Give the backbone structure.
Amino acid sequence: PITGAFLYHIDKGVMCVFVIGIVFIVSALTLYFVKLKPIMKEKESREQNNSIKEDLAFGIKYVLQNHLVFTLIITMLFANMSFRMLEVGLPFLAESFKANEKEFGLMQSALGAGGLVVSFILTFIIIIKNPSPKANMLAISSQGLGLLLLGLTTNHWQAIAAIGFIGVATAVVSTIGPSIFQKNIPLEVMGRVSSINMIVAQGAVPLAQAAGGWFLDTTGPHTLFITAGIVEILTGLVALMLPAVYLYDKREKSHTKEVI
């Protein structure tokens, strides 16, 4: 974002768009050199000829029968919809502060900066060996708290701090959430279940952004972020009270004792 703001300041966006196009082309070309080793179990191999409809039906059935996975997917649905309000409302929030291109770039960069710091910590210092749904829900509520605080800001420096906090929470969610999926979903069905998660999470994004745009026109960016923050905070707190989440640690301890 800082680089984008600098390039935009030079010629009002022409060079910025050109650089983005070049980066996309280079990224696409590098995929040609990526060689993945196939990981396939015998059962998965036998099911290779299943139709998309059958795989989709299997994924939906699995999600509905697994209460923890269902809870995670629905929670991430509301969390993702709330988080996407950042993309909708941030330019208008910066405009309300009369921020210039550089200041707007700093606001955008704060999200990545916060995430980068926490990602480094979780990778090299604090390694999460047993991801907990409780911690994931608390991180989701923290992300919502960041959105709420962003809605209460009065200048771009306060906004940078709030967005940095959102970046921290986002990095935690992005680390713990997939880890819980990998731990609780068998490898042979991971693709079909993950596809349901992607359909639900990404499919709701256009609807959420459209609703956010309407809400933004009606109320303004501050109210948009406050509302999105409250929704995400409640999403995490409600999920914490569901049996699939608050009984998870007890089941894990019981299972560990049985194994020992």
